[in-house]
Every structure is written in C-alpha cells, then in structure tokens.
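lol forgot to send this yesterday, sorry. struct tokens for the thing we talked abt
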C-alpha cells in the first residue's frame, strides 16, 4: 500500500480512509457534477437564445418560453403525440432496416475480400448521391405515402454504418489475430471473440452517425406531401406564420437526436468498459 504523508508532521499515514480520500478526492461530487457539466453547454445556449430573442434577434424569433407555450397547446390538444408517433414509427422502421443492411455489408466486406470487391464500388458510388436528389426518384417508385419516407430513411444510415464497420474490422491489430490463431481459435471464434469486439469502438461511431443522419433524412422526407408527422406540423405552421411552432418542431428534432445519441453513449459505456483510452481532463 502506498503511504501518504501527513500534511502537518510529514510523517507517513497508514489510515486507509485518509489514503483513499487523498488519491480520489470526492468521487460522489464528481458523479454529481458530471451531468451538470455535460448539460452546461445546452443551458448556456438556451439562455443566450432567451436573451437574444428579447433584444437583437427581432420579433420574428420566438423565445424559448413562447416555444414551450406552443408545445403545451399541442400537448393539451393531443395533436403533438399524433405527429410524434407517426415520425417515430417511420424513423424506427427505417433505421432498423438501414442499420441492419449496413452491418451485414460492413461485416461481410471486412471479413471477406470477395465481398468487399462486390459491394464497395456500388456503395461508394451511391454514397455520393445527395438525399434530395433521391426524393423525386423514390416518389416515382414508392408514391407519396409512408413507403417513400421509410425507403428514404433506410438508405441514409447504410453508408456510415458500412464504412465504420469496415474500418473497425480492418483496424484490428494483426498481432491479436495471429495470437488467437496460434491458440487454435476457429474462424467463428476468431470473429466473435477478437475481430468484432476489437471493431466495436468504430462501430459505435458509425451508429451515432447513422442515427443522426436518420433524423436529418426524416426532416427531408416529411417536408414532402404528408398528412401527419413533424414535417407536416412544420409545413402547417409555415402556412399560418406560426414561428413558435416551427421552432418547436426544430427543438423536438434536436431533442430526439440528443436522446438517441445518449442511448448509444450508454451502450458504449456498457460494452466498451474494457477500453482504457484517454478521456480528457
């Protein structure tokens, strides 16, 4: 055990509680301050928005309090939950299918050269197509119903997932693979115990990007003709010059994006607890 010097007598102190306090000061305080520090930037942004709306941003920009009032009106009428449910269902279906496709392509291309030769070229070419350019084509193919919106959301997350899974698998240290092979691990054991766990950090990066892109694509999809959804709510507010509702929808998109990112960060903390990388100070 490392002995601690008493600050008065400069003599070694063998008290375990005192040593623990010296080595790790106020762990409970650090846990308490963590969420506060993480949300400090958002709180500051809202304060600046509130002050700016009352001074230099002009009357066309509603204050956060006005946005909350508009949201409360929609909550009381039940209209907001209807739009949230429709948008949430589209995103959930689209992201589930799109992320699944990206994972399959990424794992196949990462593990097998022949798979990379087959899928990498087409995916890289499709990745360069902007989402807005796909809108008229998808409307022709799928119509203007939910199928068109879900199909557009499916395409968006495939590319970040594919690229990050491929990079994560190919970034696994070759020496670890050779050591595992020398221990007699078969192909399945090598993949599940060495390669995929080693690629997890990069896969989670791709997952965070894919979820963000999914919400952005929802905005594009729902700005087209739709009878229900957050995009419809924004278009309807634009027609009646309800800037408070427009900003409300923007805030909802931002909050939903933050929540999905938080879920991924929780999963990272759970599955990457073994990682000892630098975490800042």
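and heres what i got for the seq, position by position
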């Amino acid at each position: 055990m490392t002995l601690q010097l008493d600050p008065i007598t400069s003599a070694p102190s063998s008290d375990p509680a005192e040593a623990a306090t010296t080595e790790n000061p106020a762990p409970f305080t650090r846990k308490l301050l963590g969420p506060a520090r993480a949300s400090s930037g958002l709180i500051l942004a809202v304060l600046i928005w509130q002050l700016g709306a009352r001074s230099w941003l002009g009357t066309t920009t509603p204050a956060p309090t006005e946005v909350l009032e508009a949201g409360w009106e929609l909550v009381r009428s039940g209209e907001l939950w209807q739009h949230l449910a429709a948008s949430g269902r589209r995103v959930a279906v689209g992201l589930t299918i799109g992320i699944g496709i990206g994972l399959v392509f990424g794992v196949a291309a990462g593990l097998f050269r022949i798979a990379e030769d087959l899928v990498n070229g087409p995916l890289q070419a499709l990745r360069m197509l902007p989402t807005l350019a796909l809108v008229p084509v998808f409307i022709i193919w799928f119509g203007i119903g939910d199928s068109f919106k879900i199909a557009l959301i499916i395409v968006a997350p495939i590319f970040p997932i594919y690229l990050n899974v491929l990079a994560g698998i190919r970034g696994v240290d070759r020496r670890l693979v050779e050591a595992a092979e020398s221990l007699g691990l078969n192909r399945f054991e090598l993949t599940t115990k060495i390669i995929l766990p080693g690629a997890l950090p990069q896969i989670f990066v791709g997952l965070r990007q894919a979820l963000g892109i999914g919400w952005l694509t929802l905005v594009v999809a729902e700005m087209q003709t739709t009878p229900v959804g957050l995009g419809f709510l924004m278009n309807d507010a634009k027609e009646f010059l309800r800037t408070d509702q427009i900003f409300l929808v923007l805030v909802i998109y931002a909050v939903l994006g933050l929540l999905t990112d938080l879920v991924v960060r929780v999963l990272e903390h759970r599955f990457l607890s073994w990682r000892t990388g630098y975490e800042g100070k």
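Confidence is low (pLDDT under 50) at residues 1-14, 16-23. anyway ping me if u want another try
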